[in-house]
Predict the structure.
Amino acid sequence: MKKIGFLSFGHWTPSPQSQTRSASDALLQSIDLAVAAEELGADGAYYRVHHFARQLASPFPLLAAVGAKTNRIEIGTAVIDMRYENPLYMAEDAGAADLIAGGRLQLGISRGSPEQVIDGWRYFGFNPGEGETDATMARRHTEVLLEVLKGNGFAEPNPQPMFPNPPGLLRLEPHSPGLRERIWWGSATNSTAEWAAKMGMNLQSSTLKFDESGKPFHVQQAEQIRAYRKAWKEAGHAHEPRVSVSRSIFALVSDLDRMYFGRDRSEDHFGYIEPGTLAVFGRSYAAEPEQLIKDLREDEAIAEADTLLLTIPNQLGVTYCAHCIEAILKYVAPELGWR
C-alpha cells in the first residue's frame, strides 16, 4: 500500500494558453485542487517553493488555507529552500499551519536547487559564515529548526513581562506536538540522504539526483533509499521513517490525454543542473493503463518508497489535473497493489 499525492510547482504565466495566468490563480487553484484530490481519495497535496519566479513562493499562507479547507489529506512541501529561511520564524509559521490543519503538515525542506537569481538568499539577509557554503548554511538553518520544533524552552524570560510567563525558559509559540517527526529532507545524493537519516528526518527524493554510478535513475534512487534506511537503523531512532519519490505519470484514458501526452515516451537522461555536477533525470511515464502498469512495476525506487507524489501540469487547470490524479487512482494504483 502506498500514500499517493500530487506535487504542484504552481507555475503561472499571463499567456492565453495557460489556465493559471496570475499569482492569485496559482494560489486559489492550489487550494481547489487539494479539495478535489481529497474528494477523489488521494492522500497528499504537496507544493514546490521557488523564489523570484512566477511559481509558488511563500508556502505557509497556502498550507494554512488548504488545512482550513480540507479534513483528511496530508498537506506538505517538496521542498522549501532552507538557504532562504529564518528557522525560528519558520517554526512559528509551521506550528500555526499544522495546528490549523489538525496535525496534517508534512514539511519537506532542503538545500534547494539553482534559483532564478544569483545567490538569492543574500537578498533575504542570509550569508554563509566563514568557511561555509550555501549548502552548509542550509543545513545549519535546518538543525536550528529541528531543535526548536522539539518544543523545549531556550529563551530567558523578561523579569517584568507584559503578560505572565510559565515557569522556566520560554519556547516558541505556537508549538505543534508531533511536527518534528513530520519534517522531510529533499536529497539529491546518497550522503545527504544518510545525513537526513542521522538527523531523524523523513526522505524525499525527486525526479532527479546527482549521478553517482551511471546506472539508470530509478536504480540509483532505490540505492539511495536503501542507504537512507540503513543509516536510519544505525542511528537508532524510535519510530519508522517515511520515504517519498516524485514522478510524472499520466494514464492515457481520453483523447485529451493522448493529445497532451500521447507522444511522451521519454527516457532517463544525464545533464547538468548546476556547473560541474552531473545529474540523472528520471523519465516521465505516459501510456495506456495496461502498459503503464507494466512500466511502473519495473521502477525499483517506487517499490522502495511508501509515498508517491504525482507531478501535475497545473497550468492545464484544476479540472484536468484532478482527472490526471483520478486516472492513476482508478486504473493504475489498484493493479499495482497501491490501493
About this structure: The radius of gyration is 20 Å. The CA atoms of residues 216 and 268 lie 7 Å apart. The mean pLDDT is 96. The first helix runs from residue 23 to 40.
